[in-house]
Amino acid sequence: MNWPATLLNGRPQTRADLLFQLRTRTPHELWLVIVDASASTRRHQALSDAKGLLAQLFDDAYRQRARLALLTASGSAPKWQVQGLKASSGLRVWLDALGAGGGTPLVAALAQAQQWLTVRRKRFPAEQQRLLVVTDGRLKAWTGLPALACPGLLIDIERGPIRLGRARELAAGLEAEYRHIDELLSV
Questions:
Q1: pLDDT band for position 27 (50/70/90)?
Q2: pLDDT in tens, 119-164
Q3: What is the Cα gyration radius of the chain?
Q4: pTM as predicted
């Protein structure tokens, strides 16, 4: 109800005299986060530092009222943790319990994410979607990466004296921006 505009026209006598204020809705924002929690991410505190970065990301998502979709790539198959819910403090519990182990089903996680985003776009066409991939890039091989059709950022958590540098290639294949975690932690 737009009371100032209604009352400027005098005392309303009928429903037609009432002026309503149009609501402006900004489209929701969705942050799709894919976390590589394979055994190789245990080296040189890579996953530990990534957890700190993810904690900050979850806090930012909560403050900005963004929705989160969280997919973990570890073991033999990727696993959804959250699918399009508002960011909440419950994610902190999941993050504290996150451990690394097993293989790296990152390509399978990206394929699942593509399918999920396609369905979600039909349901929420105005939603602004963003992708964040946290990985050390230590995959045996990848071919035919899915096109996720949303702006993306790949954070490379590979550490140690010998770096393979595959995460940069993966970012290029996904058409995502590339950043190393050391750049983000030093800011």
A1: low
A2: 999 988 888 999 999 988 887 777 778 888 899 999 998 887 777 7
A3: 21
A4: 0.80
Alpha-carbon torsion 153, 113, 87, 127, what sign?
positive
The region that residue 173 occupies, defined by phi over 0 for left and psi between -120 and 50 for alpha, beta otherwise, is alpha
Bridging pattern class, strands 29-36 and 128-135: parallel
Nearest-CA neighbor of 116 among 149, 88, 87, 145?
Answer: 149
Strand-by-strand arrangement of the 67-74 sheet: 77-86, 67-74, 29-36, 128-135, 152-156, 177-180
Distance CA 143, CA 110 (A): 12
Q: Above 90 in pLDDT, residue 106?
A: no
For residue 186, what are its two tokens? 């030093």
